[in-house]
Design goal:
There is one protein chain. This protein is α+β, with helices and mostly antiparallel strands. Helix content is about 40%, strand content about 20%. The strands form nine sheets. It has an eight-stranded mixed beta sheet with strand order 6-5-9-3-2-12-15-14, with no helix packed on it. The protein has a five-stranded mixed beta sheet with strand order 17-18-19-21-20, with helices on one face. A four-stranded mixed beta sheet has the order 29-26-25-31, with no helix packed on it. Helix 13 crosses helix 15, helix 15 runs antiparallel to helix 16 and helix 25 packs antiparallel against helix 26. It is globular and about 90 Å long. The protein binds arginine and zinc ion. It holds the Pfam family DUF3458_C.
Length: about 900
């Protein structure tokens, strides 16, 4: 029996270990089992003899007993796929070590020692892309969360902080650039062509923040002078052919550094900041100290190859990783259950930054849309977990929308309740108090309480209770008084039932029906199951605008007259609330339609109201186009499906698709003239001209309506837009519309796009995605053909996602009645799991929705999950997600 050592059971103590793990039943790790590690590792020296197929690693760890932990007569070092070549203690070779599961155990008396371990790894064979791996002839690392143990034996847990010194060498022609964390101490080339470099990072850090890069790279370099006058060299490292697409990333880095000084008082703490772009990467980017490693997708951009959305995403991710230098690196996490401590907080920080850079209204709407598309379904499904989970089998499965995006919303609520100034006092205290430590979510909340002077006792439930709270709102009017009655309910989630009422901060405003104005926004705190609030001075029942700015991550349920929503969609002075009114209007209508509970009169009334609201949005001259583009967007099918499947009901994806497309066609037909007028206006806004971004957004939005009502005209307009495009936003938008049409222009332009951008991986990814996401009736066949395309490659995560993640999100093709779409995704999971388990496991949630779907499809989805579960050898990642989805 293997005894699995974990951060919580570091010594692999059998009493603490769970019931015997089998290959199919990886052990469950519990937050409550956390114990500090028995040893401190004040210093770590690493030596690398680099080669693509074979790299030799020698690690020297100085260790001493941890006074905060129980003494132990041995040290357990985590490994993964390692075998020690040699082990020395205090300079003497020892043979008394043993291997337990994947870990190395060395007997050790309870005093200071120096441990030296040599291992050898094969970076080219590392298709998991965790640890040290080869990508395009270069070497790079990804260590979060538990990748460092694939490089060498180490206490690979975030609460063991060490000062790292690194020496590396390798063929200079192959690896002219050698990078590591911190500062370069020395470098050179020997007479026989071996390049070498020594690096030192003065800041103690956990192993997950280690990084090393070796390759043939060039840098776009710049400088930034910090608020205290430290001059920092900035480098964006890429392959020679990508250098011309790095200016935006460099500029984004400068802006992030400046903003974090101004808004959070955070200054950078090294003389060097390196960012390296790699094309094979599991995630978006990684905040390794002084040496961020990025997916090329979040670095490279120019007008011909990147959309406005790509530009914004790059700015946001560069900021996110930079902000981690404080929220994550200077103050890190005690254990992985605390992941939201750094991720939720850092997402909030990057959102606030992007609001300042890109405009608050639109950014807030985009962030809420992401939350609803990714986090709400998670919170209402089998994988629901609190932002601070209580247990896991594989931590990689917990890099979720809940930990990241809901985590950000939770901290945003604190900020909303205490205001910006006191929030800043709280974050100042947090950074000050915990600098250099591995902290917990509780530490953060406590620092907020002390620094911002607020009681967060009940608020802490947001960290422990999963599920999206439902708030019911109703207005009762009598005389000149209106009572706003609020009720909340937190739904049951796996392992959690009978929940306590949460603290829900709701920004509200009441519009006077006669004047069309409100007399100020108020913040109401709903902290009981039911609570009423009285408002006086209204002759007639007022119009309620609630959860303005999306002040709380909840669903609001209310019975509201359609006309009130039409009024708010046209007049609400809170941009988010205005967007929300339009969404509510459409959601209410489509949900009823999909449930087949609309009478003919109701259908007509609903359609009329939506058309009237949309007409007002198109005509509103005070509205800027970026906001108009948001207001024009219909709720996604994913979100509609969630709403139809509320309260245990099931949804028919086919019906939802039909109803939504039907509404688009109806709006396209009824608003044909204003849509054409607006298209003509925005088509004349020059790229790079004033208001161009909004214009581009509206342009493609218009085309989606025309495509539904008048495909021939849409094909013509889209083909022209494609041909005349002088930027990727326009070109991609046009191609997106064409992809959904059964028209010869579709084939022409797809071919043109492919030939034009052949060899540019990020743009070819778009080409795959547009086809996989399209509403074309043959999309499923297209996807099957694309999987056989010579440019398709299971080993590159971006390419896999570009085809299959897009397909799994295709509301129509994924759900074809035969179940073929489900089979395709299950086959992919099985094929990808042995290559890259982390990426394979990310596809499981698409099938895990089966409980929300009508019985026939539901059964097909469930049986695909069962087929996966039966597979002979499943990774821990995929096993965990499938098991939870079937439970
Ligand atoms: N800390 C990184 C970020 O959010 C993500 C790393 C994810 N790694 C993983 N193995 N899931 O910026
Ligand atoms: Zn992060």
């Amino acid at each position: 029996m293997d005894i699995v050592a974990t951060p919580n059971n570091p010594e692999g103590n059998p009493e603490l270990a769970d019931a015997a793990p089998t290959p199919h039943e990886p052990a469950i790790i519990y937050r409550k089992d956390y114990r500090p590690f028995a040893w401190l590792v004040p210093e770590t020296k690493l030596d690398f003899e680099l080669g693509l197929d074979s790299t030799k690693v020698t690690a020297i760890l100085s260790v001493e007993p941890n006074p905060q932990a129980e003494a132990s007569g041995r040290i357990r070092l985590n490994g993964d796929g390692q075998a020690p070549l040699s082990v020395k203690v205090d300079g003497e070779a020892v043979n008394s070590w043993s291997v337990d599961g994947e870990d190395l155990i060395i007997p050790l008396s309870a005093e200071s020692h120096e441990i030296e371990i040599a291992t050898q790894i094969d970076p080219s064979a590392n298709t998991q892309l965790e640890g040290l791996y080869a990508s395009n002839g270069m070497l790079c690392t990804q260590c979060e969360a538990e990748g460092f143990r694939r490089i060498t034996y180490f206490p690979d847990r975030p609460d063991v902080l060490s000062i790292f010194s690194v020496s590396m060498r390798g063929p200079a022609d192959q690896f002219p650039v050698l990078l590591c964390n911190g500062n370069e101490v020395a470098r050179g080339t020997t007479d026989d062509g071996i390049g070498w470099a020594d690096w030192h990072d003065p800041w103690p850090k956990p192993s997950y923040l280690f990084a090393l890069v070796a390759g043939n790279l060039v840098a776009n370099s710049g400088t930034f002078t910090t608020m205290n006058g430290r001059e920092v060299t900035l480098n964006i490292w890429v392959r020679q052919e990508d250098l011309s697409r790095t200016d935006h990333a460099l500029e984004s880095l400068r802006k992030s550094m400046k903003w974090d000084e101004e808004v959070f008082g955070r200054e950078y703490d090294l003389d060097l900041y390196n960012i390296v772009a790699v094309s094979d990467f599991n995630m978006g980017a990684m905040e390794n100290k002084g040496l961020n490693v990025f997916n090329t997708k979040y670095v490279l951009a120019d007008e011909d190859t990147a959309t406005d959305a790509d530009y914004d995403a790059i700015e946001g991710v560069i900021a996110h990783e930079y902000f981690h230098n404080w929220s994550g690196n200077r103050v890190t996490c005690r254990d992985w259950f605390q992941l939201s401590l750094k991720e939720g907080f850092t997402v909030l920080r990057d959102q606030l930054f992007s609001q300042d850079m890109q405009g608050e209204a639109v950014k807030r709407i985009e962030d809420v849309r992401i939350l609803r598309a990714a986090q709400f379904p998670e919170d209402s499904g089998p994988l629901a977990h609190p932002i601070r989970p209580d247990s896991y089998r594989e931590i990689s499965n917990f890099y979720t929308a809940t930990v990241y995006n809901k985590g950000a919303e939770v901290i945003r609520m604190i900020r909303t309740m205490v205001g910006e100034a006191r929030f800043r006092q709280g974050t100042d205290l947090y950074f000050d108090r915990h600098d250099g430590e591995a902290a917990t979510c509780e530490d953060f909340v406590k620092a907020m309480e002390d620094g911002a002077e607020v009681d967060l006792s009940q608020f802490r439930l947001w960290y422990s209770q999963a599920g999206t709270p439902k708030v019911e709102a109703s207005l009762l009017h009598s005389g000149d008084t209106t009572l706003l009655a609020l009720k909340q309910e937190v739904p049951d989630t796996p392992g959690q039932s009978r929940k306590q009422p949460m603290v829900v901060p709701l920004k509200v405003a009441l519009f006077d029906r006669d004047t069309g104005k409100h007399s100020g926004e108020q913040l109401l705190i709903l902290d009981e199951a039911q609570k009423g609030f009285n408002f006086t001075g209204f002759d007639k029942p007022p119009i309620l605008s609630i959860n303005r700015g999306f002040s709380a991550p909840v669903t609001i349920q209310r019975d509201v007259p359609r006309d009130d929503l039409v009024f708010l969609a046209a007049n609400d002075d809170d941009s988010f609330a205005r967007y929300e009114a339009m969404q509510e209007l459409v959601v209410g209508h489509l949900v009823a339609a999909a449930r087949d509970s609309l009478s003919d009169t109701e259908r007509t009334a609903g359609e009329d109201a939506i058309a009237q609201a949309m007409r007002a949005i198109l005509a509103d001259e005070a509205l800027d186009d970026a906001m108009r583009g948001e207001l024009m967007m219909l709720p996604s099918q994913t979100y509609l499906l969630e709403q139809v499947a509320r309260d245990g009901a099931t949804a028919d994806p086919g019906t939802i698709h039909e109803q939504r497309e039907g509404l688009k066609a109806l709006l396209g037909a009824r608003l044909a003239q204003p849509l054409r007028d607006i298209y003509e206006r925005v088509a004349n806004v020059p790229f790079n001209g004033e208001g161009a971004r909004g214009a581009l957004k509206v342009k493609t939005q218009v085309l989606t309506y025309v495509a539904a009502s008048d495909p021939e005209t849409a094909a013509e307009l889209a083909a022209r837009q494609y041909d005349q495009a002088d930027n990727m936003t326009d070109r991609q938008g046009a191609l997106m519309v064409l992809c959904g049409l059964d028209h010869p222009e579709r084939t022409h332009k797809l071919l043109d796009f492919y030939t034009r951008y052949r060899g540019n991986a990020l743009v070819i990814d778009k080409w795959f995605t547009l086809q996989a996401l399209s509403l074309h009736p043959d999309a499923l066949e297209h996807v099957k053909a694309l999987a056989e395309h010579p440019d398709f490659n299971l080993k590159n995560p971006n390419r896999v996602r570009s085809l299959y993640m897009a397909f799994a999100g295709n509301p129509y093709a994924f759900h074809v009645e035969s179940g073929e779409g489900y089979r395709l995704i299950a086959d992919l999971i099985l094929a990808l799991d042995p290559i890259n388990p982390q990426t394979a496991a990310r596809f499981v949630p698409s099938l895990g929705k089966w409980r929300k779907i009508e019985p026939n499809r539901s059964e097909l989805m469930r049986s695909e999950l069962e087929r996966i579960r039966e597979a002979a050898k499943l990774s821990r990642d995929t096993y965990e997600q499938v098991a939870r989805s079937l439970d």
